[in-house]
Amino acid sequence: MDPTLAFPLLVGLIGVALFFDFLNGLHDAANSIATIVSTRVLRPQYAVFWAAFFNFIAFLFFGLHVAETIGRGIVSADIVTPQVVFAALVGAIAWNIITWLYGIPSSSSHALIGGLVGGAVAKAGSVAIVWSGLLKTVAAIVLSPLTGFVLALVLILTVSWIFVRQTPFAVDNTFRTLQFVSASLYSLGHGGNDAQKTMGIIAVLLYSQGMLGGEFYVPFWVVITCQAMLALGTLFGGWR
User: Fold this and answer.
1) What's the rounded Cα separation, in Å, for the pair 218 and 232?
2) Where are the alpha helices (DSSP H) in the chain?
3) Which of 19, 157, 161, 164 pairs with 134 at a CA distance of 20 to 30 A?
4) Residue from 25, 73, 2, 12 nearest 230 by CA
């Protein structure tokens, strides 16, 4: 059995996880505000506050299924050690910084999952992988953009038919209002999905240290802290 971390080291590792969470928000901030800024509905300084707010309150609308999947549905929670968590976080953080600096589109979530799988396999071999959870995640990488493409096409056709007889001025006024709705929903989805990756990592770290009473769950303080750090990252990232 792996030795228990000294409390300062545990706090430091949680800090590294929260730094990844901050970078996640910073990395994806442009996506959250791109449409509402490019259409001049909101100025950038107001748009980032709008996105950050909905990032933070997302936990009120979503469960913790993603966090539980990351914590014990990708690799076995009994295999995860502080060393595995550190390896996963360092790899994901490095990838986030590199792609952000060079403007390369990438997924913070997939970077974290890849780092977690790599660290677990390096420690215990392929037996560490929960294949059912990993295969669902890999399938989502392919199916998500295809589903988004089809739904976007259907939405464009539907909206075109609905507004075909409207004047440009009326359409512009309607869609300027709807931009607030779409940006809010996007930021809610971002906050409800991406913050949970870090929640799962911190929760499985606490579990590995015997701090969850032998039962895996995500403490409320972890939920609030991760949502706040993601929102803070979005707030800072939107200024770049």
Assistant:
1) 21
2) 7-38, 44-56, 65-68, 82-101, 108-124, 131-162, 168-208, 220-237
3) 19
4) 25
Q: Give the model confidence (pLDDT) of 126-140 as tens digits.
A: 999 999 989 998 898
Burial (CB count <10 Å: 0-12, 13-18, 19+), residue 165:
exposed
- The C-alpha angle with vertex 231 and arms to 229 and 235, in degrees rounded to 5, equals 115
The encoded tokens of residue 59 equal 């936990």
Report residue 129: phi and psi, to 5°: -80, 135
pTM (2 decimals)?
0.85
Establish how many alpha carbons lie within 13 A of residue 203's alpha carbon, considering only the half-sphere containing its beta carbon: 29
Measured CA to CA, the distance from residue 231 to residue 213 in angstroms comes to 30
Per-residue pLDDT tens over the stretch 14-64: 999 999 999 888 887 777 788 888 888 888 888 999 999 999 999 999 888
Q: Report the interhelical angle of 7-38 vs 82-101 (nearest 10°).
A: 30
Contacts of 121 (CB under 8 A, 6+ apart): 128, 129
User: Which of the listed ranges 62-66, 98-102, 116-120, 162-166 does the model predict with the highest average pLDDT?
Assistant: 116-120
**Pairwise CA distance, residues 47 & 30, whole Å:** 10
Structural domain boundaries in the chain: 7-237
Q: Which two tokens stand for residue 123?
A: 């420690």
33, exposed or middle or buried, with CB in 10 Å at 0-12, 13-18, 19+?
buried
